[in-house]
Design brief:
alpha/beta; single chain; about 55% helix; 14 helices; Beta Polymerase, domain 2
Length: about 350
């Protein structure tokens, strides 16, 4: 028997998840209806797919936001539809100002895989609009057209949507657990994979998963995530998936991350990448790129109109933010008692991420 306080805690978590997901799904229903009316298809990603179609109980799978995949040529219309539904930019300093596609560059910057985070102010529901499932400039080669070609039609609350194919879902969940979050979600991300493997069972084409993952350069993410899912959760995954997979110190670092609950936050990723570059020429080039990115990046990062003169001020803001970052790092070096452990954690994160893209 479990202690009564543990049962009560689990019951409250269950009810809390049911309540939160009900609100999120209400917003998703509305958005799907609006997009369907315009003839714009969408693919449900991650939580919405898993909670409704894999766990088959929205109270069993916590969600913090909604993730949808749309075609890149539809992005501007989808964003405007989201605005019409009440969403606004999460980081917007002037949410009341109308933002029309003729003034703003509604695209996804190379450093990201989804559009700017949106929030519904009434319910605080968050929305991520994806056109890709990996950063545009990453080493992964996942053609959106292939995802759409493999996508399967489904009905979400009597409204037509698409879902990633079971094979693409497994690859995406492994990529999300390993590369996107470096296993910081612990066993919960692996549980998604295990439940998906169990749900789709014999219809999963493991040989196709291997071929597709090799072609998309996600093999390291796939094998490492599936290794932990099989080892820790007993998922039924064929041994052939792990051909040419070797246990080394990177695997140990990843496993340590799964079980570490309290660890010092690593230093800023720009600093960690900079210090791991070889030679001062590369370091200087990287600093210039970070401090003076191209106009397209600035337009998307600071949500300014395409031809706005305010972008010059944003460059000045970025310079002062960079100076503040340098000051914070120097302060940590001189006075932070956890600097050494934060630096080791950051270096391990950097090494692990670099290892994951070597597929």
């Amino acid at each position: 028997m479990f202690p009564k306080n543990v049962i009560q805690h689990l019951r409250m978590r269950h009810l809390g998840t049911a309540s939160q997901n009900t609100v999120l799904f209400h917003r998703l229903d509305d958005l799907i209806e609006r997009l369907n009316a315009k003839g714009i298809p969408l693919v449900l990603l991650k939580g919405a797919h898993l909670a409704e179609f894999v766990y088959e109980d929205i109270a069993l799978r916590p969600m913090s936001d909604l993730d949808i995949l749309v075609r890149e040529e539809h992005l501007s219309r989808v964003v405007q539809t989201a605005f019409d539904a009440g969403y606004r930019f999460f980081f917007d300093e002037n949410p009341e100002k109308a933002k029309f596609s003729r003034d703003y560059d509604y695209c996804i910057a190379p450093e990201f895989r989804h559009f700017q985070l949106l929030e519904h102010p009434e319910t605080k529901s968050l929305l991520e609009i994806h056109c890709f499932i990996a950063d545009k400039d990453s080493s992964f080669e996942i053609p959106p057209a292939e995802l759409w070609r493999n996508a399967q039609p489904a009905m979400f609350h009597n409204r037509p949507v698409f879902l990633l194919s079971p094979e693409d879902l497994i690859i995406h969940l492994c990529l999300h657990a390993a590369y996107d979050h470096l296993f910081e979600f612990g066993l919960s991300a692996l549980c998604d994979i295990a439940i998906a493997v169990k749900h789709y069972g014999e219809i999963l084409d493991w040989e196709e998963i291997r071929r597709r993952s090799n072609r998309w350069r996600t093999r390291q993410c796939l094998q490492l995530s599936l290794h932990f899912t099989k080892k820790l959760l007993g998922a039924e995954i064929p041994d052939g998936v792990f051909d040419n997979f070797h246990i080394d110190d990177m695997v140990d670092i990843a496993e340590e991350r799964i079980f570490k609950i309290h660890t010092p936050a690593p230093l800023h990723p720009h600093y960690l990448k900079w210090r791991n570059l070889k030679g001062w020429r590369e370091k200087i080039r990287y600093m210039v790129k970070v401090m003076l990115p191209d106009r397209d990046f600035m337009v998307n990062r600071y949500m300014e109109p395409k031809n706005s003169r305010l972008l010059f001020g944003r460059y000045l803001l970025r310079f002062f933010q960079g100076a503040q970052g340098v000051y914070d790092i120097a302060k940590a070096i001189l006075s932070d008692s956890q600097y050494g452990s934060r630096l080791r954690r950051g270096d391990d994160d950097f090494r692990l991420r670099e290892w994951l893209i070597k597929s």
